């Protein structure tokens, strides 16, 4: 069994219970080797059908910011049995998707965390998942079987998050908590020792459910740390508490946003601006009962500002880079850093590259929309505010510029996706 | 340009040569991938370079529309614009203009066409084509030719051929006056349709100008003509063209076509086929094309080709993984483009090695046996190779012979 090692290097001086923190992450493997360290706060690369969109394998290799990739499993449900479960070798998922286990951490989730489409209901037997041939029902037993066969480094335990049409009742939220807890317990049930030697047991991440109700969120987390007795404990023996079998926590924002949007719309017509701290508060409700020494992941933050809010508010360690990858997909080269650079700063590299434009509100844009005509004349690097990484300096704007974007959809996102995804 | 023949096949007309241009040496025979708009679709210049490719083609027509000459001038030419430090060839823009423009009218002055963007009428003269290609700065540039479809018959074919010769003279003048003859090399294009007499007249005129052109292309083919006619025109031209000039067969990309052309004495070829077919999910292999959309590859954990040095196969990308992403993720197009370009390079590299070793006839036999196997050989290939002393049927008298094009496909069954 491999294990995820998270070291907190420093906490901020703030005196709240859940503080911003700086750390490193790596995965110790059975053979004593470990993956390269990931510095946190950091990023998880998102994938589609098992690949980082627009990147060939040689580009993935040469992009040092791709260290941990999450693979949504549902696209493989179009064939039975799912093809990655048939891959021979000791590291099936790494081998099949081409992320060498020496360099990459792979986590496996059933659903694509960025797919918010409406889905048929889950029930206590199964979760509804989506593949190109339609909706598939996946039971907790299926999920365990797939995860053990694919041998990812980490697996996200099945949780019951409804994607049926909103709004969801409080009763539904209670069911979600019950099912998610039961499914986690089932996942942690020991594998018969005769098979333990052949089977690799991935680390487990758990989705902190509970919807928009802070008390519900807290009570789910409390169920993870409470000591179980009797039959409940026997099920997870030798563990006593579910949390002992968990390596990290996920705050999944997309379902919250889907519910919240509707709620706000109904109660406050015409007033759709949400308090950006709302989601941080919900995350805090989830994290408060939980120990500090485990990895905290947030999915579907929607901007660098929100990322900063989650670091400040609840010390999140890893964020997905879906947002940055989408920017590349639509032709935007990110170019910003924090703290925001003043106009007089010498950091700007303007002989080489112009700064992102300033809007009439006085705020500077976060990147360059390469579809704009002006970039067709800029035969320079992409970014003016940071210099790390190798790709920006070697790729000129003009070659991936308006002329190209329309007719070369294959070419352009490649160069942008390969840009460093760090924000400083 | 320095052009030196290193070896000749003792049986066929094939030869190996080295062509030294301003951006390096390219070994011939070679296949040139097409980077239509200053990019091989899906790959960065660094990736193309890493495949061992050092001569690519840009389309003048496309570069002239986008990014346009103003931007290319700012960038300092197409090499710098696309980050490509190796050899580059541009066509004249004539062929695309005729095939892509809604309206084209050929006059003695040039080709009048309407822009596909704003419909504005623009005249492309031989002098203008040279000026554009000088701005692009490719190592090999092509004369403007009067292109007619290879299926055209009647007086238009002869008219186009003679006009192509007159336009060659104008291109030569413009090119020599530009002062760029030391870094850019002008190729003439032999026209004359499918008519052997017209081809002969064109060859005669163009060979007269041999001291003012660096190489010759064989144009006006690959437009749907019978393959048995196609190879005879190639042979006629290759036989007559000067030995000390590279010969370029335009629009040829299927492996069997390439090898037949090489055997007939052709040194260079280009085609969008290997890169385009990659984007449609087809991998090229020595056992024939492999359509990865086909369900038969869904749980096939072998690479496309065992031992293939391309980034896709050497990384162990399986057919099953490619099947899962093909047509749905651009990464599949990238992976197959890398493989197919390496396949083309291996076909041509293998031919060069065999010619050097004096084993080219055997190389051809092995290739056809592996590639077509029991599906049968295209009759035209058998005929063409017989004309240069290679009998594909010598060791395989019972193999089926397929009349017509005989192209091998791997159709995707659901
Ligand atoms: Zn390959």
Protein model, in words:
The complex is a heterodimer of chains A (424) and B (414). Chain A has 424 residues and is an alpha/beta fold. Chain A folds into 2 domains: 3-40 and 73-320, Alpha-Beta Barrel (TIM Barrel), CATH 3.20.20; 334-423, no CATH class. Chain A is built from 14 helices and 15 strands. Chain A has helices at 57-61, 92-97, 140-150, 170-188, 193-196, 214-225, 230-236, 253-267, 277-287, 304-314, 322-329, 391-394, 402-407, 411-417; strands at residues 3-11, 21-28, 38-40, 42-46, 68-72, 105-109, 127-131, 134-138, 154-156, 203-207, 248-252, 295-299, 318-320, 332-334, 367-369. In chain A, the strands form 4 sheets. Chain A has an 8-stranded parallel β-barrel, surrounded by 4 helices. A 3-stranded antiparallel β-sheet of chain A has the order 1-2-3, with no helix packed on it. A two-stranded antiparallel sheet of chain A has the order 7-8. The longest helix of chain A is centred in the middle third of the chain and has 19 residues, at 170-188. Chain A is globular, with a radius of gyration of 22 Å. Chain A starts with a strand and ends in a 7-residue tail after the last helix. Residues 268-272, 388-413 and 419-424 of chain A have low confidence and may be disordered. Chain B has 414 residues and is of the alpha/beta class. Chain B folds into 2 domains: 2-270, TIM Barrel (Alpha-Beta Barrel), CATH 3.20.20; 278-402, no CATH class. Helices cover 41% and strands 17% of the residues of chain B. Chain B contains 16 helices and 18 strands. Chain B has helices spanning 45-50, 60-65, 69-75, 78-82, 94-100, 126-136, 155-178, 196-208, 227-240, 255-264, 273-279, 311-314, 319-325, 330-357, 360-372, 379-386, and strands at residues 2-8, 15-21, 24-28, 30-33, 55-58, 87-90, 104-106, 111-114, 121-124, 140-142, 185-190, 215-218, 247-249, 268-271, 282-283, 290-291, 377-378, 401-402. In chain B, the strands form 5 sheets. Chain B has an 8-stranded parallel β-sheet with strand order 4-14-13-12-11-10-6-5. A 3-stranded antiparallel β-sheet of chain B has the order 1-2-3. In chain B, strands 7-8-9 form a 3-stranded antiparallel β-sheet. In chain B, β7 and β8 form a beta hairpin. In chain B, α6 (126-136) packs across α7 (155-178) and α11 (273-279) packs antiparallel against α14 (330-357). The mean pLDDT of chain B is 94. The interface between A and B is large, with 44 and 44 residues. Chain A: It holds the Pfam family TGT. Chain A: Residues 20-335 form the tRNA-guanine(15) transglycosylase-like domain. Chain A: This is tRNA-guanine(15) transglycosylase-like domain-containing protein. Chain A: It comes from Cerrena zonata.
